[in-house]
């Protein structure tokens, strides 16, 4: 009888990538995907713990799955990802229904571990983080029909920003061998993938070789030359490691999308220092100006946090000022959240919850105006998009501009996977509406 699995993925692209890795391994060993957890023999939850809210969400889902297991004792229930790495064996004590706790660098062992669980009905906790990074998976047909895909080019992070849990749950930074990355890129392209996003917590510190001969711009240039690759992107970059060489890639490589996600986190030098970010607001703004000199139409998006310990109203005003000056195309904004074991958790001067909510609200209103204003400049303009698939509303297609903006439009033919031109008719905050050029729709 076939065995069925179900994975719920929470958190960032790293987790999405890891879930695909797990899917591939399970399917290679005979498992089939189940549409809902109720129909599965193996249920996995791939978790995130970057903020307290993400953790609560995972625990509440885990609680529901534990109740499901009470009705179906044969079910195998596992937790993977960043909470699994952080909490380890404590999870089994807290959720006795759990069979498996699999850390972020152990996912490659999943099928072998499942055998032990099935044979001995014993619980397994595998959270060794000292292992070598997982090489990109050889996806053998797994991505057929998909327009875009990720390749993880590095694991872990060494930056230890004072608020951040990631270095603890993802381990030390290790880059993947360029040969493996190239092999996976070719494999994806041969399956029809048109756009590849290179992934890492800090891709611009990628390095390979005894003397670190290969750096990120070199890797990017090599990959961008691959036949059949229409678009290449990367995320995330850290301002302290953004080299001039990388900035110049935006002017040199035709298929490198004109978009950079460059988190600034805070606009006050005092707060940036407390966060251990390694750059000043002036340096950050200089980098954005350099990028815009080299590639005038580049879209810049960023992450920012409000309510970091000791953030005064004046500090917050500096953040707003930076946002107003830099005019990001989009901004992901978060309330500071205490994470266990980080330096910031132990800092004095914690900010009142209501004040944090107020600051976030103000900031999001400001950014909404900027995003809409920037999108409106595209009304009446022609843009090139890569068609990804049907949009959620029936009869429409959707795609993205190189600047990563979503465009919805009508078309009678299936043009998924093609680069097409669209006239932008109307701009909203979160998407654009267009008309396909050369079509009678
Ligand atoms: N490696 C990436 C981002 C990792 S986490 C980078 O360095 O840019 C994604 C975002 O979550 C961060 O950019 C930050 O804005 C936010 N974040 C991380 N830890 C947080 C915390 N403790 N509280 C609130 N937001 C946090
Ligand atoms: Fe976290 Fe900083 Fe590393 Fe990003 S660079 S993952 S924010 S420690
Ligand atoms: Fe969350 Fe882990 Fe990503 S903590 S943001 S899933 S690296």
Furnish the topology, listing elements before pairings.
Elements: E1 4-9, H1 13-28, E2 32-33, E3 42-47, H2 52-71, E4 76-81, H3 82-87, H4 90-94, E5 100-102, H5 110-120, E6 124-126, E7 148-152, E8 154-155, H6 166-170, E9 174-175, H7 178-190, E10 195-199, E11 207-208, E12 214-215, H8 216-224, E13 231-235, H9 244-252, E14 259-261, H10 269-274, H11 281-294, E15 299-306, H12 313-326, E16 330-335, H13 353-376, E17 382-390, E18 396-401, E19 406-410, E20 419-427, E21 432-436
Parallel strand pairs: 1-2, 1-3, 3-4, 4-5, 5-6, 7-10, 10-13, 14-15, 15-16, 19-21
Antiparallel strand pairs: 8-9, 11-12, 17-18, 17-20, 18-19, 20-21
Helix pairs in contact: 12-13
The chain binds S-adenosyl-L-homocysteine, iron/sulfur cluster and FE3-S4 cluster (F3S).
FE3-S4 cluster binds at residues 11-12, 14-15, 48-50, 81-82, 165-166, 169-170.
Give a description of the structure.
- With 441 residues, the protein is an alpha/beta fold.
- The chain folds into 4 domains: 123 residues, 3-Layer(aba) Sandwich (Rossmann fold), CATH 3.40.50; 123 residues, 2-Layer Sandwich (Transcription Regulator spoIIAA), CATH 3.30.750.210; 115 residues, Transcription Regulator spoIIAA, CATH 3.30.750.200; 55 residues, Nucleic acid-binding proteins (OB fold (Dihydrolipoamide Acetyltransferase, E2P), Beta Barrel), CATH 2.40.50.
- Helices cover 34% and strands 23% of the residues.
- The chain is built from 13 helices and 21 strands.
- A 6-stranded parallel sheet has the order 2-1-3-4-5-6, sandwiched between helices. A 5-stranded mixed barrel has the order 17-18-19-21-20. It has a 3-stranded parallel sheet with strand order 7-10-13.
- α12 packs parallel to α13.
- The radius of gyration is 23 Å and the shape is globular.
- The termini are far apart.
- It binds S-adenosyl-L-homocysteine (SAH), iron/sulfur cluster and FE3-S4 cluster (F3S).
């Amino acid at each position: 009888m076939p065995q069925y699995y179900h994975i719920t993925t929470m958190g960032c692209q790293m987790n999405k990538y890891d879930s695909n890795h797990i899917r591939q391994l399970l399917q290679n060993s005979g498992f089939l995907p189940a549409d809902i957890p109720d129909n599965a023999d193996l249920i996995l939850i791939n978790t995130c713990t970057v903020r307290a809210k993400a953790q609560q969400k995972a625990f509440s889902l885990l609680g529901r799955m534990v109740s499901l297991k009470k009705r179906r004792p044969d079910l195998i229930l596992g937790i993977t990802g960043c909470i699994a790495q952080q909490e380890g064996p404590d999870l089994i004590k807290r959720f006795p229904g759990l069979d498996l706790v699999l850390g972020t660098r152990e996912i490659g062992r999943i099928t072998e571990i499942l055998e032990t669980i099935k044979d001995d009905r014993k619980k397994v906790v595998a959270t060794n983080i000292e292992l070598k990074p997982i090489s990109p998976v050889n996806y053998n047909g797994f991505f057929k029909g998909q327009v875009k895909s990720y390749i993880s080019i590095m694991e872990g992070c060494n930056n230890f920003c004072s608020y951040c849990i990631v270095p603890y749950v993802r381990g030390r930074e290790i880059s993947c061998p360029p040969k493996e990355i190239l092999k996976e890129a070719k494999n994806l392209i041969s399956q029809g993938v048109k756009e590849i996003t290179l992934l890492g917590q800090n891709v611009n510190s990628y390095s390979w070789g005894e003397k670190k001969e290969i750096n990120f711009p070199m890797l990017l240039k090599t990959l961008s030359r691959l036949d059949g690759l229409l678009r290449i992107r990367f995320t995330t970059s850290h301002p302290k490691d953004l080299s001039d060489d990388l900035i110049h890639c935006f002017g040199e490589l035709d298929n490198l999308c004109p978009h950079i996600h460059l988190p600034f986190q805070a606009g006050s030098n005092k707060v940036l220092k407390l966060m251990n970010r390694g750059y000043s607001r002036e340096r950050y703004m200089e980098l954005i100006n350099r990028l815009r000199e080299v590639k005038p139409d580049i879209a810049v998006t960023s992450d920012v946090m409000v309510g970091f310990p000791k953030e005064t109203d004046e500090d917050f005003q500096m953040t707003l000022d930076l946002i107003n000056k830099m005019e990001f195309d989009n901004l992901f904004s978060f309330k500071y959240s205490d994470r266990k074991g980080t330096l910031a958790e132990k800092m004095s001067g914690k900010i009142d919850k209501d004040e944090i909510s107020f600051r976030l609200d103000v900031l999001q209103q400001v950014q909404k105006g900027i995003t809409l204003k920037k999108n409106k400049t595209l009304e009446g303009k022609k843009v090139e998009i890569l068609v990804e698939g049907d949009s959620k509303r029936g009869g429409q297609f959707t795609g993205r501009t190189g600047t990563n903006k979503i465009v919805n439009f009508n078309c009678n033919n299936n043009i998924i996977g093609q680069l097409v031109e669209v006239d932008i008719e109307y701009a909203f905050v979160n998407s654009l509406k267009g008309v396909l050029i050369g079509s009678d729709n």
